[in-house]
Amino acid sequence: MASRHATLKTLTLIAAMAVAVGLRGTPAHAQGQEVLTVAGGCFWCVEADFERVPGVGDVVSGFTGGTVENPSYRAVVEGGTGHYEAVEIPFDPSVVSRRQLLDLFFRSIDPTDAGGQFCDRGESYRTAIFVDGPEERAVAEAAKAAAAAELGQQIVTPILDEAPFYEAEAYHQDYYLKDGLGDVILTRAGPQTKAEAYKFYRDACGRDRRVRELWGDDAPFIGG
């Protein structure tokens, strides 16, 4: 594991605040908010992680970067549309900056894997950062360089121009929170609520194990 940098103290502070506050944030796209769009593998997991960060609003799961308008989840994961599973992260820049969110993002994924993330393979599960203009690109490039320096490995996560974002079906939004009687589904582990199924999937997929292996104590969302 590479040596730690002073800037990572900020990441630790944000993660500690997220655990202590336990907030889902404010409504998406509220006045004065900015939006960060990233792809980090399964969008359920990225949504669950970033809704824990103070200053972040209601994260939206969806698809971007492809060639088909209004794609369905099934079409995206079957391949051929070119889309990434992605999220829009609305945030209040007076509370948390774009750079801080990008630092957290890199440390919540495996940015050395070009073929997907963890147990999820294929084009829809690749990682990416989507930017609107040169200023956002510069921030993303700086975060990517810092991640590469810490890991001492090549970062394959591309920085791409912003593309149309299509919201995923309601079934997928806030999946990790759906724990009511009406949310029970049949899984390989038997009947579970969607929230229970999410936790089972996250553990079985090895997401947290691989992130901890890469980032150690700088992994901000282990067990999310």
Explained architecture:
- The protein is an alpha+beta fold.
- It is built from 7 helices and 10 strands.
- A 6-stranded mixed sheet has the order 7-6-1-3-2-8.
- Helix 4 (98-106) runs parallel beside helix 5.
- The relative contact order is 0.18.
Topology summary:
Blueprint: H1 8-21, E1 34-40, H2 43-50, E2 60-64, H3 73-78, E3 84-91, H4 98-106, E4 116-117, E5 120-121, E6 127-131, H5 134-151, E7 159-161, E8 165-167, E9 184-187, E10 190-193, H6 194-205, H7 207-215
Parallel strand pairs: 6-7
Antiparallel strand pairs: 1-3, 1-6, 2-3, 2-8, 4-5, 9-10
Helix pairs in contact: 4-5
C-alpha-based Rg, rounded: 17 Å
Q: Looking at this structure, what is the CATH superfamily? A: Peptide methionine sulphoxide reductase MsrA
Q: Tell me which CATH architecture applies here.
A: 2-Layer Sandwich
Low-pLDDT runs of 5+ residues are 1-7, 17-26
Count the domains. Answer: 1
Number of strands: 10
Distance linking N and C termini: 22 Å
- Give, in spatial order, the strands making up the sheet with the most strands: 7-6-1-3-2-8
Q: Number of DSSP helices?
A: 7
Query: Could you say what the CATH topology is called?
Result: Peptide Methionine Sulfoxide Reductase, Chain A
- Mean pLDDT level: 89
Shape: globular
Element pattern in H and E: HEHEHEHEEEHEEEEHH
Largest beta-sheet details? 6 strands, mixed
Helical coverage, percent range: 25-40%
